[in-house]
Design goal:
With 280 residues, this protein is of the alpha/beta class. The protein is built from 9 helices and 13 strands. It has 2 domains: 80 residues, Winged helix-like DNA-binding domain superfamily/Winged helix DNA-binding domain (Arc Repressor Mutant, subunit A, Orthogonal Bundle); 194 residues, D-Maltodextrin-Binding Protein, domain 2.
């Protein structure tokens, strides 16, 4: 069985479309479609149910997926060991700002322990932008929030969204003063849509890519904000379900490697995720 056909299959599953899978592993959409077709012909099984709106795994596709992941992992490990990798080099990591002071240091600490002398370059941006950088080969690894129902990346944490305020009475102000992460953030659109549907007036004081700024605005009682629970300072009021305001979801935070790979410098993505999970 051609290992690259399996890599394409896993990339399509993780990304939910031929288009993004092609961008991730540097192939055209038509090439991805042909590779999936070749794999289906080789196995004499249909792996996906296709429709105009969705691409879903068939029962045979679900059965193949864990084996495909394991074969890719073994293949990448074998190639890495046989080729006797050179000295560790620079690893480019992308991370949303709200995870940059908690999860990103954990990741860097793990990589430094496993890969002596490695140099880390990091950038902060929202998850959508980081996906684009990863697909374009401009990053080696990302920490991102994946969409609901996605199997993208390897899960490292589930985080409840919270309303953040310094004075609990601020929640009752109308219009509700808001300081939110930029529009690409999952919480931003959910909060705005929820308030509009509930006919609650609001005043968007500020949106920003920097959590530190939002926290300071909240601390000065200029606004309330919404963010992942672990990002919010312990000395401030965190509300998970304030009366009348939109309910916030649980965010799934994952790590991903470029090209759909399972290894970086001989270290498996799964083992890195397991260590990060253990540090919670």
């Amino acid at each position: 069985m051609d290992i690259e056909l399996l890599r394409t299959f896993v990339a399509v599953v993780d990304n939910g479309s031929f288009t993004r899978a092609g961008a991730q592993i540097y192939r055209s959409q038509s090439a991805i479609s042909m590779q999936v077709k070749r794999l289906e012909e080789e196995l004499q099984r249909q792996l996906f149910h296709r429709s105009a709106r969705a691409l879903k795994l068939s029962l045979d596709g679900r059965a193949l997926l864990p084996y495909a992941r394991q074969l890719l992992k073994l293949h990448d490990e074998a190639m890495d060991n046989i080729l006797n990798r050179s000295q560790a080099h620079n690893i480019r990591i992308g991370c949303p700002d709200d995870y940059s002071h908690t999860l990103l240091p954990d990741l860097i600490q793990i990589l430094r322990a496993k890969i002596p002398g490695v140099h880390i370059s990091s950038i902060c941006a929202n998850s959508n932008i980081l996906r684009q950088h990863l697909d374009n080969g401009e990053l080696d690894m990302t920490i991102i929030t994946r969409p609901e129902g996605s199997t993208e990346g390897v899960l490292i944490r589930q985080e409840q969204g919270v309303w953040l305020c310094n004075d609990p009475q601020m929640i009752n102000h109308r219009p509700l003063p808001l300081a939110l992460l930029e529009p690409g953030c999952k919480f931003h659109s959910l909060v705005i849509d929820g308030l509009q549907k509930a006919d609650i007036s609001y005043d968007l004081v500020c949106d920003a890519s920097n959590c530190g700024l939002l926290i300071e605005l909240v601390r000065r009682n200029l606004a309330v904000s919404v963010m992942a629970a672990h990002t919010a300072p312990d000395d401030m009021v965190k509300l998970t379900d304030p009366v009348g305001l939109p309910t916030l979801p649980v965010a799934e935070i994952v790590i991903c490697l470029k090209g759909g790979k399972q290894l970086i410098e001989g270290i498996s993505l799964e083992s890195i995720a397991n260590e990060m999970t253990a540090t919670k």
